[in-house]
C-alpha cells in the first residue's frame, strides 16, 4: 500500500493558471499533500468545479486576468488575511502565439510577455514582502517555462523569447532573494498530451504533422502529472538547497 505523504502539510500554495492543464493538476496534487491551495484563473466555472472537489473551506479561488496587474495585491491581501501568509507559488499560466514574424504585431509581443513573464515577476515582488510571503519557512517559487526556453521552433518567436526571459529573470531573482529565504526555480516541459494548448495545436495541424511531433519525443509525450510531480518536489523541503535552476522535463526531446 502506497504511503500517503504530507510534504506540504498546512502550507498555503498560490497557483496561477489553475483552471486547467498543469495548474489544475498541481492544485489537486498539492491538496493531496496537505496544502491549502489558492487558485487563480480566468475561467470561473472551472475554478469552482475544482474548488468543490477539494472538499473543505481552507482553500480559495479568485478570478483574475493576469493583464490586470493592479488586482494582484488585492487578491494576495485577501488570501493572507483569511488563510495566512503564502508558503509557495506556482506560476502555471501561459499564453502562446504561433505566427510567422511577418504577421506579428508589437501588441502581440506585449500581450505574451505580460502573461508569461512580467506577471510572474510581479507576483514574486509582492510575495517577497514580509506581510505576504512566509519568508521564515523556506518559501519556494516554481515558474513553468518551456523547453522552448532553450531551443526554438519556427513561428514561435514571441513565445520562445518570453520563456527564455522567464528563465533568465528567475536566475537573477534567485540570487537577489536568497537572503530573504526565497527559492526560485523553473520547470521547462516539452509537449504534454493532456493540455488545452496541445488540443489547440491538433486543430491547427494535420494528424500526420502531429504524429511527426510525437515521434520527436524518445519517451513519448508527457502529461501534466509528470510536471506536477516535479513541482511538488520543488515546493517541498526536500529541495531546500536548490535555487536558480531550470529543469528540462521533455522525454528526451531536447537531446536530439
Write a brief caption for the model.
Helices cover 42% and strands 14% of the residues. The chain has 256 residues and is an alpha/beta fold. It has one domain: Rossmann fold, CATH 3.40.50.720.
Notes on the protein architecture:
With 256 residues, this protein is an alpha/beta fold. The protein has one domain: Rossmann fold, CATH 3.40.50.720. It is 42% helix and 14% strand. Strands 3-2-1-4-5-6-7 form a 7-stranded parallel beta sheet, with helices on both faces. The protein is globular.
The overall pLDDT average reads 95
CATH H-tier superfamily? NAD(P)-binding Rossmann-like Domain
Number of domains: 1
Q: Give the H and E element order.
A: EHEHEHEHEHEHHHE
CATH topology: Rossmann fold
Q: Order of strands across the widest beta sheet? A: 3-2-1-4-5-6-7
The helix content, as a percent range, equals: 40-55%
The number of helical segments is 8
How many DSSP-defined strands? 7
Query: What is the molecular shape?
Result: globular
The CATH C-level class name: Alpha Beta
Give the second-level CATH assignment, the architecture.
Answer: 3-Layer(aba) Sandwich
How far do the termini sit from each other?
39 Å
List the helices and strands and how they pair.
Layout: E1 12-16, H1 21-32, E2 36-41, H2 44-54, E3 60-63, H3 72-83, E4 88-91, H4 106-127, E5 139-144, H5 157-177, E6 182-189, H6 196-204, H7 207-215, H8 224-235, E7 246-249
Helix pairs in contact: 1-8, 4-5
List keywords for this structure.
seven-stranded parallel sheet; 256 residues; Rossmann fold; alpha/beta
Amino acid at each position: 500500500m502506497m504511503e500517503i505523504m504530507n510534504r506540504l502539510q498546512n502550507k498555503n500554495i498560490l497557483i496561477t493558471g489553475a483552471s486547467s492543464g498543469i495548474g489544475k493538476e498541481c492544485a489537486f496534487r498539492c491538496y493531496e499533500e496537505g496544502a491549502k491551495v489558492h487558485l487563480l484563473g480566468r475561467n470561473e466555472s472551472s475554478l469552482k468545479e475544482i474548488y468543490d472537489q477539494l472538499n473543505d473551506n481552507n482553500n480559495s479561488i479568485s478570478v483574475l486576468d493576469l493583464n490586470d496587474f493592479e488586482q494582484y495585491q488585492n487578491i494576495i491581501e485577501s488570501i493572507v488575511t483569511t488563510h495566512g501568509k503564502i508558503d509557495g507559488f506556482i506560476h502555471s499560466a501561459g499564453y502562446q502565439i504561433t505566427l510567422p514574424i511577418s504577421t506579428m504585431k508589437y501588441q502581440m509581443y506585449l500581450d505574451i510577455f505580460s502573461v508569461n513573464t512580467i506577471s510572474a515577476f510581479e507576483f514574486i515582488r509582492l510575495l517577497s514582502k514580509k506581510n505576504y510571503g512566509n519568508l521564515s519557512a523556506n518559501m519556494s517559487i516554481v515558474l513553468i517555462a518551456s523547453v522552448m526556453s532553450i531551443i526554438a521552433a519556427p513561428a514561435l518567436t514571441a513565445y520562445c523569447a518570453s520563456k527564455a526571459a522567464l528563465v533568465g529573470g528567475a536566475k537573477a531573482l534567485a540570487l537577489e532573494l536568497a537572503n530573504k529565504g526565497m527559492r526560485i526555480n523553473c520547470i521547462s516541459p516539452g509537449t504534454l498530451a493532456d493540455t488545452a494548448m496541445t488540443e489547440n495545436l491538433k486543430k491547427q495541424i494535420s494528424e500526420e504533422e502531429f504524429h511527426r511531433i510525437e515521434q520527436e519525443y524518445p519517451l513519448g509525450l508527457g502529461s501534466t502529472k509528470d510536471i506536477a510531480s516535479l513541482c511538488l518536489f520543488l515546493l517541498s523541503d526536500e529541495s531546500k538547497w536548490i535555487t536558480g535552476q531550470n529543469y528540462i522535463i521533455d522525454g528526451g526531446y531536447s537531446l536530439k
